[in-house]
Design goal:
single chain; 19 helices; alpha/beta; RNA-binding; Gyrase A, domain 2
Length: 558
RNA sequence: GUGCCCGUAGCUCAGUUGGAUAGAGCGUUAGCUUGCGGAGCUAAAGGUCGUACGUUCGAAUCGUAUCGGGCAUACCA
């Protein structure tokens, strides 16, 4: 069809002397034709003619390989035979169908899920993981090299808070879990806030003490710190493994503290940053239209987000030379990243920065209002979510006698897909029945379609025959859908719109289900059977590839 | 106050960058049925695209105003 687009482009240029971009769109159901083109309407005014007349003039110049009609307000509709579509797919098909090399030679960094070490993995880190991973896979499908980095929230203070709370609660170091640590952390933060409000600082001092002890190499502090970090990291790794997520690096905030502070000092001396009377350091961003300066260092000289992120950007630029850096972080931090990216420009970092933001996970309050899920209001822990999902899968697929691995694949498939149903900017209403959906537009629906195709191919394994003069009429809808895939993958790269891939996977799965209704395979004539197996094999590959871009695995059976 | 995001079917959401009669899923109703894997498929009902102007052949989409909701707005991470 690319060829035909070029022909239309040239015809328009020849007839009307203008260059108009030519795009094809699907034709609505119940209207004749497979592709529609709106150039005639775009041209009508310039040509001083009615759209229908323009359309007719263009059609007269087009090759006779397809049939054309003018419809509606002036669309040129192009009808293609099933056989021609088969020819197009056969020509385009190769080992990497759907992928492209537009990003060849370019390097991207995808930062996710950036979990906070102080608390257990919660649904709050679900979206960074799923979206960050999809970003990686989508860019790779477009030829990029992608480096993934888990920017762990491990900077200083949690240890002091943990150690103080741990001692106060008198817990056993050998039995303490991430959930105990999370409780300690939340309780301590609340107590410290109350303490500060009362004008006291005993707990804060104790926490600070522990940090100093750790820095001076105190034995107990070091043992506790190592133990806490191991508990937290083991937990994060265990959850990520269940979600089938991993990153190349785990360079946490603490890794960048000194580097960041040194850079702040350097830019302060260079006059890029300025120091307030209280000792805090800021970076003015007025020239970028941002009237809130970015705070680079606290008044007590301590690092904060901006400090470590500055160090991190510098590190990545020098070590990895990325063309693009993607931060998979929620919408709440949009303003922060606007500032950070302005800062990056100000200090002359060359890479393109992208805040891959997404909406909040909401829940319905007891009063019936929709609101963001938060620790205060009872956050859902990811391990509990996964356990719940697996339990539902086991109950619903009881007869299938699934392996543990397949149960995990289906459960995470459901959870991940639910993240991609809507545009990432749209918030998600947390509803277990929706997140664990096994029917309708869902991960398991798509996985099921894959497994079904795989079985059909297995049962017909080894069968071969010439296609003869088979017309591929029953396959038209499927072939049209398969031909959309490469352009879709390419179109989604810039804005990382994973939901479009998810929508496509659903449509393809649905198209296959419709297809089986009236196109028997095993019992068909040899040439028809062979042709249909050819189509099914390609549909399966495309669906697997689409789901893979979303990080969704295919179970062996279900 | 200012900035950003959003408002589409009972609910949750799409809507291919301005195109045809605004579409899915869930839910509701009615069909199909021992199938190469029916967790599916077919169909029906359900809409003043928050509201009002404007731009043009044409607006859910662009502009202005307005109402409603969410988030952010330097020493929390």
């Amino acid at each position: 069809m690319e060829n035909l687009k070029n022909i239309i482009f040239e015809v328009v240029k020849k007839l009307y002397g203008v260059e108009v971009p030519v795009e094809f769109a699907p034709v609505p159901a119940e209207i004749e034709g497979d592709y529609s083109c709106n150039v005639a309407m775009r041209l009508a005014r310039a040509a001083g003619k009615a759209p229908h007349e323009v359309a007719s003039e263009i059609i007269a110049e087009l090759p006779a390989d397809y049939s054309y009609s003018v419809a509606g307000p002036g669309f040129i509709n192009i009808a293609v035979s099933g056989k021609a579509l088969y020819g197009q797919l056969a020509d385009a098909w190769n080992e990497t169908y759907g992928y492209n090399q537009s990003g060849a030679g370019k390097v991207a960094v995808s930062e996710f899920p950036s979990t906070n070490m102080a608390k257990p993995y919660s649904v709050g880190h679900l979206r960074p993981g799923t979206q960050g991973w999809a970003a990686k896979r989508i860019l790779e499908a477009n030829g990029w090299k992608v480096i993934t980095d888990n920017h762990l929230g491990d900077a200083g203070t949690p240890f002091g808070i943990w150690a103080t709370g741990f001692k106060r609660a008198g817990l056993d170091i050998d039995k303490v879990t991430i959930y105990d640590l999370g409780e300690l952390y939340i309780q301590m933060k609340a107590d410290m806030k109350a303490e500060a409000a009362a004008g006291e600082h005993a707990l804060a001092d104790a926490a600070q003490d522990w940090l100093l002890k750790l820095e001076s190499g105190d034995e107990e502090a070091r043992t506790l710190s190592e133990r806490f970090n191991k508990i937290s990291l083991d937990h994060i790794h265990s959850v990520m493994k269940r979600m089938n997520l991993s990153t190349d690096y785990e360079l946490g905030e603490s890794f960048f503290v000194e580097r960041g502070k040194a850079l702040v000092k350097q830019y302060l001396e260079a006059g890029v940053f300025t120091q307030n009377d209280d000792g805090s350091v800021i970076c003015p961003l007025d020239e970028f239209g941002i009237d809130v300066p970015m705070l680079m260092l606290k008044s007590n000289g301590a690092a904060l987000y901006a400090t470590t992120d500055l160090g991190c950007m510098d590190y990545r630029a020098k070590e990895w030379h990325p063309d693009k850096v993607i931060y998979a972080v929620g919408a709440e931090q949009k303003f922060y990243f606007e500032q950070l990216f302005a800062l990056a420009k100000k200090i002359g970092l060359p890479q393109e920065n992208m805040h891959l933001w997404f909406g909040t996970i909401d829940q319905i309050s007891p009063e019936g209002k929709r609101e963001k899920m938060s620790s205060r209001k009872g956050v859902v822990l990811l391990e509990a979510l996964l356990d719940d999902a697996e339990k539902r899968v086991r109950e619903n697929f009881a007869e299938a006698e699934l392996t543990d691995e397949d149960v995990r694949r289906i459960a995470t498939g459901a959870i991940k897909y639910s993240d991609f149903i809507a545009d990432r900017k749209t918030g998600i209403l947390y509803d277990p029945d929706k997140i664990f959906a096994l029917t309708g537009q869902s991960g398991p629906f798509c996985q099921y379609a894959c497994v079904r195709m795989r079985r059909i191919l297995e049962k017909n394994a080894g069968f071969e025959a010439e296609f003869g003069d088979y017309d591929f009429a029953a396959e038209k809808a499927v072939l049209l859908k398969l031909l959309e895939f490469p352009a879709l993958v390419a179109s989604v790269a810039d804005n990382l719109e994973a939901h479009k891939i998810a929508g496509y996977c659903f449509e393809l799965a649905q198209e296959m289900n419709r297809y089986y209704e009236n196109a028997p395979i095993s019992t068909a004539l040899d040439n028809v059977r062979a042709a249909r197996l050819w189509v099914v094999a390609r549909a399966m590959t495309v669906l697997e590839r689409g789901l893979d871009l979303l990080g969704i695995e295919i179970p062996d059976k279900m």
